[in-house]
Structure formats: C-alpha cells, structure tokens
Design brief:
By secondary structure, the protein is of the alpha/beta class. The protein has a single domain, classed as Rossmann fold (3-Layer(aba) Sandwich). Helix content is 39%, strand content 11%. The chain is built from 8 helices and 5 strands. A 5-stranded parallel beta sheet has the order 3-2-1-4-5, sandwiched between helices. Helix 1 links the parallel strand 1 and strand 2. Helix 7 packs across helix 8. The longest helix has 16 residues. It is globular. The N and C termini lie far apart (42 Å).
Amino acid sequence: MKAIAVISGGIDSSTLLYKLVKENWDVKALTFVYGQRHKKEIESAKKICKILNVKYETGDISTVRKLITKGALTGDIAPPEVPETMEHYDTLKQTIVPNRNSIFLSIAIGHAITIGATHVFYGPHMSDRGIYPDCRKEFVEKFNEAEKLANAWDEINIVAPFVEINKLDIVKLGNKLGVPYELTWSCYKDGKNHCGVCSACRERKRAFQESGIKDPTIYENESK
C-alpha cells in the first residue's frame, strides 16, 4: 500500500524508512524545514532516501517559526543554548517545539490524501515518552481518531511502530536492516560532527552502548 513517512534524518526515522522498504511499502518520505537550528538533519534524510531510492520531498514551513518560537531548537529567547545534559526534566523541556508532531502529521495527512496514500508513519519511541507528549501512544491513538473524523471520506491511518519500544531496540532493529547510521544526524547543533554533549547526542551514545552495537558516529566531545 501507499504511505507517507515523516522523517528527520535521525536514527529513529531512518530505521523506520528501512523497515517500510523491507516490508514493500510504496513509501514517500517527507521532511520539514520549520526553522530548526539543526538543519543538517535534512541532508541526512536526503542521503538515506537516495540510498533506498525512495521518493523524497521537503516541506518548507519555516515561516511558522515566528509563531512557535520557544525553547532551544527554534527560539531566540533565553536560554538560547542547546541543553548539554539529559539528566534534568526542566532542562530537557527546553527542546520541546510546541505542537510540532501535530503540525507535521496534519500536513503529511493532507499530502497523503492528495496522492492517494492510506497510511502516515512517524517514529516516536518509548524513550521520549517522559518529555515529549506527542511521542506517547495515547497521543497517536487520539490524534488518529481526530484525523479519521476530519477526513471521513478518505481512508487514513497514523502509525507509530516504535511507540512502545526503546531507542536501543530501534538501534538493534536498524543494525539488522543495515541502516547506515554513520549517515544519520541526531545532534541539536549544526556542526561538522555530532557535538557529543547535547541531550540528543547523549541519548544516541547511550542507545548504542546499551544495545552492544558499535557506534559509528564521530563526536567532537567524547564525554559521557
């Protein structure tokens, strides 16, 4: 069947895309430019799609940035620094972009219906549950219900295959599928290499360590 996959170029969405291709979905990848500081993830998404020979499109919604300017990833207000710890709840909340997944999914659903796709996939996982409300199973279920009502004349299904597993399990799956993790991008900063200290880099490191799979990532700072 035909599907849209919302991808970012990171570990989770790249593994998701490999999984869908393995399952023979007719999938188109959709990435959003929304004013994020870490635009390098978009180049990673393009590379992954090129390897898989998957149709790819970038949705430029960067003008929305002024409406959701808050926190470390899109905001200009203090604290502007990307958090360099994943130990404190209040610190990690700085990386929340208000209603981001709802915005992405709404647009992806509209595009899916336009091209005749019946499924929209995205890659939230259990490890993000505590911080990001739109990565929870409850959100996926309720949002799915709302979108079915909003698009009653068309079949549409929102699917989050990883929502009940942890990131280390995603890494294990991706390793089996042959995902080139060295091409993926997780860092919240936009340097030449992963910074190694932001919360996203720390989570990435830990997933590889706990999975027992060699981490191919080059980090500027190897501190744990």
